[in-house]
Fold this sequence. Notes:
Strand content: under 5%
Bound molecules: zinc ion
Distance between the termini: 39 Å
Amino acid sequence: MGVISLLFVPTGFDDIPEIAVPVVRRLLAFVEQRRNGTVGIAQTLPEVHRLGLLRDFRTPTVIEFGARIGLSAAESCEIANLANAVEKVPEVAEQVKKGEISVHGAGILGWAIENKDLVAAKPAGGTDPTSGASSASEGVPDRAAKETVQSLHEAAQTMPARELRDFVDRRIQEIRHDGGPVRPVTLQVAATYCKKFERVRELASQKEGEYVSRDRAFEIALDYYLDHRDSRRRKPRKRRMPVTGAKRTRRVPDEVRRAVLERTDGRCSFPACANRTWVEMAHRVPWRLGGSQEKDNLDGLCSDHHRRVDAGEFRIEGSTEAPVFYDGKGRRIGRNGLPIERGRDRGRGGKSGEDPKGGPAPP
Ligand SMILES: [Zn+2]
């Protein structure tokens, strides 16, 4: 998405050599086409969703869908966010087509207006005369939400994407800390520590049950260290990450978990699923039916695939070391995560015997 995020709209051709003008013109025409196309996909997505072809706009479903139509995960996410922006603020569509807002910027807008904390809050510096009691958290005035969306939309039109992202992150932090001062921090650390930080962020996301921002992950890491090492810290903080509190008695032993995750390098074992943040231990034989907590009874599945396997949308065959997935129509899931059409194997003799059990008849 490099070219598209780079908003390249020269006002005239005075500053480039004449010989280059046709090439630049051609380039710009293609960039415009691409913007139009991206907006077109974003506008069609809600329709696809209404037809039930997409569970929701959120990952990983949208990523799977994107893969089917030849989009990368990053493109799919950006388009899903753009779709959200266009749905909530329809004029964004035209603005992106004209290059007034970059696709990336509109994606950030779409992502930001999904943020409940941010949009339920009052706009920066504003007071809301319509809400008498500030304790009334339920039924946040619609007007305040609209104003926030409006101010975000304005920011998207005036700021480069990077700045917009910082602006949004900053607002979220301010809200989280009740309007207290927020400072940007830039750190120079070795790449290995960036990896470690991302790992901390993954673990924190798992604990908190939602993707946490880098800002939040930084806070969590600091609190965690201080809670454990600082004797001056008397009481645990209100927002402290639950460390030992979780009441999970049917815990899968850590070493088993590790062995299961090692098979797929930490990823969900569903073909082509890149999720490594929400990987859960899925039992072949359910625990309540006497299934073991050992690795030969466990597949590492992301929460979405776990749910869908449990719901019977997919079934798993083969050993847990080499699981094979089938969809509801009995079609084997190929390495690209999509069902292999049986017709394709027809005439290749014996190939269909690979799936001896077949599957339930199509509904
Ligand atoms: Zn998955």
